[in-house]
Design a protein that fits this description.
Helix content: over 70%
CATH topology of the domain at 8-82: Serine Threonine Protein Phosphatase 5, Tetratricopeptide repeat
Number of helices: 18
Distance between the termini: 102 Å
Oligomer: single chain
Largest sheet: none
CATH class of the domain at 8-82: Mainly Alpha
Length: about 350
């Protein structure tokens, strides 16, 4: 009998709290925040989790009461402890981004867990990021992949790119270029340059997709036109080889130059040879020497040998037996048979 009485009292309290909650929500929707706060408080003090969440919203955002982060967080926390997902997600964001409190990745991870497991995309992505980076939790790429996938399947572009990277590089999951291509294509189609570059690489090399140099060129171009230096270099190499595009030394040179301007060292030697041999431009041994020197600084043995030759012949540089000998010596030490 006592148990039944207690249940009836609890039910009556719940009904009363629910009525207050409804009145508060109606006022909140009408932007009558002072009335909303009054009604939310009645329900919140009776343990109504949704009312606690909304009361937290009012305090945290200064709606109907002076803005008070600490009180807002206190009400969010009461709701979150009862499993209220919106409150948990909100607390996760507060601690992740340091809104009104110092950044605390451990608390962010704690509160994002519930919404992430419930399938909410943004908390799942950020929880994946925390596991990926080892922020607030132990670094765990397999857990990162789990949460990235939850978010990726809900259409979160950041999660799709992050999940693709795990498959591409084999972190936390077995390396799987086909799975990487699946997710990278989603974000590449949205205009992200790095995924576009990697789609080009996969089509050029037949990794995860059937090799298709024309498609490779198409993806490289999309990324190159957005300033992705590696894509500019790769597109230049396709033009130089006539692979997937019509062979065009002039186009190759222009893309190599764009990449080199951003410090993409893979094109230095190609630029040097273009100016030395007049491919896509007139012969210019001074420029050739400049690019050979940049290539040599990256460890390119053939570039060191060519610098020796240019100094020996006085082509594009002042003739110098001493400089020639030095460059030949460096080339030989690097394994050049010709030197």
């Amino acid at each position: 009998m006592r148990r039944l009485s207690a249940l009836l009292i609890l039910f009556a309290v719940s009904l009363h709290a629910g009525a207050d909650m409804l009145k508060g929500y109606e006022a909140y929707q009408k932007e009558d925040y002072q009335t909303a706060v009054t009604e939310f408080r009645k329900a919140a003090e009776q343990g109504e989790a949704l009312a606690q969440f909304y009361l937290g919203e009012c305090y945290f955002n200064g709606r109907g009461v002076p803005q008070d982060f600490a009180t807002g967080i206190d009400w969010y926390s009461r709701a979150a402890e009862q499993g209220q997902l919106e409150a948990q997600e909100t607390l996760g964001g507060i601690y992740f981004f340091g809104k009104g409190v110092p950044v605390d990745y451990a608390l962010a991870a704690k509160w994002y867990a519930g919404p992430a497991e419930d399938g909410k995309a943004y908390p799942a992505f950020l929880l994946g990021y925390l596991h990926d980076q080892g922020q607030g939790v132990s670094q765990d790429s397999s857990k990162a992949a789990k949460y990235y996938r939850i978010a990726a399947e809900k259409g979160n572009r950041d999660a799709q790119e992050a999940l693709a990277a795990l498959y591409f590089f084999g972190r936390g999951v077995g390396q799987d270029y086909a799975e990487a291509a699946k997710w990278y294509e989603e974000v590449a189609a949205e205009g992200r340059s790095y995924p576009q570059y990697l789609m080009g690489w996969m089509y050029e090399n037949g990794q995860g997709v059937a090799a298709d140099p024309a498609k490779a060129a198409g993806w490289y171009r999309k990324a190159a036109e957005q300033g992705e230096a590696r894509a500019q270099a790769s597109l230049g190499f396709l033009y130089a080889q006539g692979n997937g595009v019509a062979q065009d030394d002039g186009a190759a040179l222009q893309w190599f130059l764009k990449a080199a301007e951003q410090g993409e060292s893979s094109v230095y030697s190609s630029l040097a040879w273009a100016y030395h041999q007049g491919k896509g431009t007139t012969v210019d041994d001074a420029r050739a020497a400049s690019w050979f020197e940049k290539a040599a600084a990256t460890g390119d043995v053939q570039a060191r040998y060519m610098l020796g030759y240019l100094y020996e012949e006085g082509r594009g540089v002042a003739k110098s037996g001493e400089a020639a000998a030095r460059w030949y010596r460096e080339a030989a030490e690097g394994g050049s048979v010709a030197a």
